[in-house]
Structure formats: structure tokens, C-alpha cells
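Collaborator request, handled under Task 6.
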Amino acid sequence: MSGFSTARQKMVDGQVRTNDVTDRRVLDAMLTVPREAFVPAGRQALAYLDLDLDVSEGPAKRFLIKPALTGKLLQAAEIGEGDNVLVVGCATGYLAALAAKLARQVTATECDSALAAKARDAVTAQGLSNVACKAAACTDGDPAAAPYDVIVLNGAAEVMPEALLGQLKEGGRLVGVSAESRPPRALIVTRTHGEFGHRALFEAAAPVLPGLERAAAFVF
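C-alpha cells returned to the collaborator:
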């Protein structure tokens, strides 16, 4: 086994399984998708650590969220083999690649166009033909490929992303971290008969996605 293969196994056994991720499909995806392939060369040694990994190229900070949280969100999303999935704020595409192992089709958006291009290259290098990586604001989603069975946020939102919810199909669900309240929590929002039901899942923290920040309060 290579060093990265060993590190990947340790990540799954030591970080993901120990955080109550038991879904065999999610665990298999995390064992087979090389996280280091989605990390800048100079930071690959950090690829399997228990941290939100900075993969930024420009001034705006962009991250791969912690492995354990990645696994827990994917498990909560219950992605089926026939599902059409949107990954928002995909950064370099790691979460999108994992989702592609679980779903029929994945659309991944990233507001940093240079990172979106890197994500495109990375998923192509993994031989994943069912992922489309696009440059788009996190608030916009991708209406062209909607409606979605599942939307996954690769990060947190301080405001409810209404435009994204509108792209869910009936029975569809959005999972991500809600930082609207303290402490922040992973949240699942389900669309039923045109209404949206919100359910908190577990306490979780993640970097806030660009465009989903709370508006700054006016201070005298």
C-alpha cells in the first residue's frame, strides 16, 4: 500500500467510522476516491488530516470540509443510484467525486472559476464521466440541470439559500451546515408538497460558503 492508501484507510477507520458513518456505499466511496488528488501539490501531506483543508488559489478562501463531516453529510443525504445531485461550492471537486460514486448524475458548482477548472480536471483524471463542474455563484445553483433529488453544500450557510431550495424536486432534500444559529448544526431540508421541512441533525462547524454569509449588521 502506498502512503496515501494507508492514510486513506486510517482516515476512514479513525475519523469517519468513529463518527457514526455506517453507510457501506459512503465508506467505499471514501476508501476509493483519493483525497490527495484534489489538493494542491504542496499541501498533499495534509490531505487526510482531520481539518477543513484550504485548497485556495486566489484571495478567497476555499476548503474541502473535514472528512468526518463529509461522510456524515453524504450519509444523511441518502443518495440513491438513480439520483440527480447538485454539489454547491465544490472547491476542487472532492465531495462531487464522492457523490458521483453514489449517484446517477452530479452537477458541481464553484464560484472561483480557476478552482472550477481544477475540479473539472481532477474528476476527469479519476475517470468520472457523470460529473459536470461549472463556475457559478453558490447562491445560484444550476437551474439548467434541475430539479435535483439531493443538494449538498460543501460548507456552511448563514442564510437559507432560497434559490437552491427552489431547485429541489418533490421529495428532494438539501443537506449542509446551518450557521444561522449558535451552535451551528448540520441540517436537512426536505421538499414535500411545495413546502420545506427543516430538521437539525447534529452539531457541526464548517467554513461559510461565499455568498451565503449573513449580511453585515449596520453599526453606528
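The cover message to the collaborator said: "The mean pLDDT is 95. Helices lie at 3-16, 24-32, 67-77, 94-102, 113-125, 162-165. Please let us know whether this matches your experimental observations."
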